[in-house]
UniProtKB/TrEMBL annotation:
PANTHER family: ALDEHYDE DEHYDROGENASE. Belongs to the aldehyde dehydrogenase family. GO terms for molecular function: lactaldehyde dehydrogenase (NAD+) activity. It holds the Pfam family Aldedh. It comes from Anaerocolumna cellulosilytica. This is NADP-dependent glyceraldehyde-3-phosphate dehydrogenase. PROSITE patterns: ALDEHYDE_DEHYDR_CYS, ALDEHYDE_DEHYDR_GLU. Keywords: NADP, Oxidoreductase.
Length: 476
C-alpha cells in the first residue's frame, strides 16, 4: 500500500462540536466529525430541496458522466481509502480493498443501467370500451430528497448503493453515515463533489443517530428513506414517519441447511467463509447451521478443518479473516450469547475465547431452540449448529425465525434444492453457496423483520423513482 490515511487536525474549527472516531483495533482517535445540530440538519435538507429543482432536469447522460468520473476518482484514491477503511471499521486489507473496487463497479453499472431504463406507451384500445385515440406515456420521475442512512460494516459500499442510484435517477440526497464509518462517509461525499456534482445535490449529516436520528428521519422535507442497519432502529424509523416510502435492509439470521447428500467438504468451506469473514459482521453472514443428524458429525469434522485455517488478529499487522469487533458493546453482546449457550448445555466445539474486542471463531453443536444463539443475530463470530431429523424440520426451524433475509441449501439433488427453496420465507435462497449479497445487480431484499422493498442496482433505481402517466387524448 502506498498512500496512508492521515488525520489532519488543521481543518477543525473552534465553534463546532465534534464526535471522536476511534479505531476498533486499538481505540486510538483517528479523526473527528462534526456533531451536527438540528439547524445543520435543516440546512442540509434545505440545500437538497433547492438543488432538486435543477438536478432533476440535468440530462441523464450528464448525470451518468459525473458518476463515471466519481468511480475513477474513487479508484485513484484506493490506497488511502483502503487504509482508512481498515483503521475506521477494522476491516482486513483484502476485504477493504475489494469493497472499494466493488463500489467503483457499482457506480459504473448504475450509470449504465439507468441509460437502459425506458418508459412505455400504453394504448387505450387494449381495455374494453376504449380506442387508440387515448394513450398513456409512462415515464419515471425522481421522488425528491432521499435520506440515505448507512451502517458501519460497509461504510463505502452500502452508502454508495443508496447514493448512486438515487442520484442517477435525479434525486438529491441527504446522507447520514454510521458514526463509526463517517470518516469514510466524508471522503465519499468529497469525491462525488470532485467528480462535478453541483452544490446541494449530495449533503452530509454527521453526528450520533441517537441524538439527531429522530429529527432527520421525521423532517418534513424528506421524500424517501433508504436505510440499512439493525431491525431495532429500522422499526423505530418506520413508526416515526408518515406517508414517506421506505427501503430498508435490516437484520438477519441466515441459515445454511445441509442435506444428507450434500458435498460436505464443499459445504463446510462455504459455511465457514460465510460465517466468519469480517468476524461475521455482515447482514448476510451464515448465522446458523441446520444439518440432518446423519451427516452432522462428518460435517463438523470439515467445519473444524476450515476453522483451523482462519487467520485471527489485528488487520493492520497481517491479512486476517477474524478481526476485533466494532465495539466493546458488540463484543460483550456476543459473549452473552456464548455464555447463554454454554449454560444451557450446548457443546463448544471450538472458540469461546476473547481478547479485548477480538473473539475467536466459535462453533457450538447441539444448540437447542431455548438458546438465544439459535435465534438472535450475533453480528460476531459465533456459529450454532442445530441438528434436525428431516428436511421438513430444517425448513420449519429456518422459517420460525423472525428474520427472512437469505438461506443456503446444500444438496446434490436439484429437486430437493427446489423443494427447500420453494418453502423458505426469505428474500434469496442460495443453492450450494454461502449466503451473500453480490453480484450487486441481483435483487437484494429481506422479508419479515429483515427489511422492506428491494435493492439491487435496477431495483434501487426503480424504488427511488415513481411512475408518471401523461395521458394523450386525440380529438378527431
Ligand atoms: N440487511 C442488510 O443488508 C444489512 C443489515 N445490517 C444490520 O445492521 C446492524 C449493524 O449495523 P449498525 O451500524 O450497528 O446498525 P444500527 O442500526 O445501529 O445503525 C445503522 C444506522 O442508523 C443510524 N441511527 C441510529 N439511531 C438512529 C435513529 N434513531 N434514527 C435514524 N438513524 C439512526 C446509525 O447512526 P449512528 O452510527 O450514529 O448510531 C447508523 O447510521 C445489524 O443488525 C445488521 O444486521 C447491516 C448491514 C446490512
Ligand atoms: O451489509 C451487509 O452485510 C452486506 O449487504 C453484505 O454484503 P456481502 O454479502 O457482499 O458481504
Amino acid at each position: 500500500m502506498t498512500q496512508k490515511y492521515v488525520f489532519d487536525r488543521s481543518i477543525l474549527k473552534d465553534n463546532i462540536q465534534y464526535v471522536e472516531i476511534k479505531s476498533p483495533i486499538d481505540d486510538s482517535v483517528i479523526g473527528l466529525v462534526p456533531a451536527m445540530t438540528k439547524k445543520d440538519v435543516d440546512s442540509a435538507v434545505w440545500m437538497a430541496k433547492e438543488a432538486f429543482k435543477g438536478w432533476k432536469n440535468v440530462p441523464l447522460n450528464v448525470r451518468a458522466d459525473i458518476l463515471y468520473k466519481a468511480a475513477d476518482i474513487l479508484l485513484e484514491h484506493i490506497d488511502r481509502l483502503t487504509d482508512l477503511l481498515m483503521k475506521e471499521v477494522g476491516k482486513d486489507y483484502k476485504s477493504a480493498n475489494s469493497e472499494i473496487k466493488r463500489t467503483a463497479d457499482f457506480i459504473r453499472f448504475t450509470a449504465d443501467t439507468a441509460k437502459s431504463i425506458h418508459g412505455e406507451s400504453i394504448q387505450g384500445d387494449t381495455f374494453s370500451g376504449f380506442n387508440k385515440d387515448k394513450f398513456a406515456m409512462v415515464t419515471r420521475e425522481p421522488v425528491g430528497v432521499v435520506l440515505a442512512i448507512s451502517p458501519f460494516n460497509y461504510p463505502i459500499n452500502l452508502a454508495t448503493s443508496k447514493i448512486a442510484p438515487a442520484l442517477i435517477a435525479g434525486n438529491t440526497v441527504v446522507f447520514k453515515p454510521a458514526t463509526i464509518g463517517s470518516l469514510c462517509g466524508m471522503e465519499l461525499v468529497k469525491l462525488f463533489q470532485k467528480a462535478g456534482l453541483p452544490e446541494g445535490v449530495l449533503n452530509l449529516v454527521t453526528g450520533k443517530g441517537s441524538e439527531i436520528g429522530d429529527y432527520v428521519v421525521s423532517h418534513t422535507d424528506i421524500n424517501f428513506i433508504n436505510f440499512t442497519g439493525s431491525t431495532e432502529i429500522g422499526l423505530g424509523i418506520s413508526e416515526k414517519v408518515h406517508m414517506v416510502p421506505l427501503l430498508m435492509e435490516l437484520g438477519g439470521k441466515d441459515a445454511a441447511i445441509v442435506l444428507k447428500d450434500a458435498n460436505l467438504a464443499f459445504a463446510a468451506k462455504n459455511i465457514i467463509a460465510g460465517a466468519f469473514s469480517y468476524s461475521g459482521q455482515r447482514c448476510t453472514a451464515v448465522k446458523r447451521i441446520l444439518v440432518v443428524d446423519e451427516v452432522a458429525d462428518e460435517l463438523i469434522g470439515y467445519l473444524n478443518e476450515e476453522i483451523s485455517k482462519l487467520q485471527v488478529g489485528n488487520p493492520l499487522e497481517k491479512q486476517v479473516d477474524v478481526v476485533p469487533l466494532i465495539s466493546t458493546k458488540a463484543a460483550d453482546f456476543v459473549m452473552e450469547l456464548i455464555e447463554d449457550a454454554k449454560e444451557k448445555g450446548a457443546k463448544l466445539i471450538v472458540g469461546g475465547k476473547r481478547q479485548g474486542n477480538l473473539i475467536y471463531p466459535t462453533l457450538f453443536d447441539y444448540v437447542t431452540t431455548d438458546m438465544r444463539v439459535a435465534w438472535e443475530e450475533p453480528f460476531g463470530p459465533v456459529l450454532p449448529i442445530l441438528r434436525v431429523n428431516s428436511v421438513d424440520e430444517a425448513i420449519e426451524l429456518a422459517n420460525r425465525s423472525e428474520y427472512g433475509l437469505q438461506s443456503s441449501v446444500f444438496t446434490e439433488n436439484i429437486t430437493d434444492a427446489f423443494y427447500v427453496a420453494n418453502r423458505l420465507e426469505v428474500g434469496t435462497v442460495q443453492v450450494n453457496n454461502k449466503t451473500e449479497r453480490g453480484p450487486d445487480h441481483f435483487p437484494f431484499l429481506g422479508v419479515k423483520k429483515s427489511g422492506i422493498g428491494t435493492q439491487g442496482i435496477r431495483y434501487s433505481i426503480e424504488a427511488m423513482t415513481r411512475v408518471k402517466a401523461t395521458v394523450i387524448n386525440l380529438n378527431h
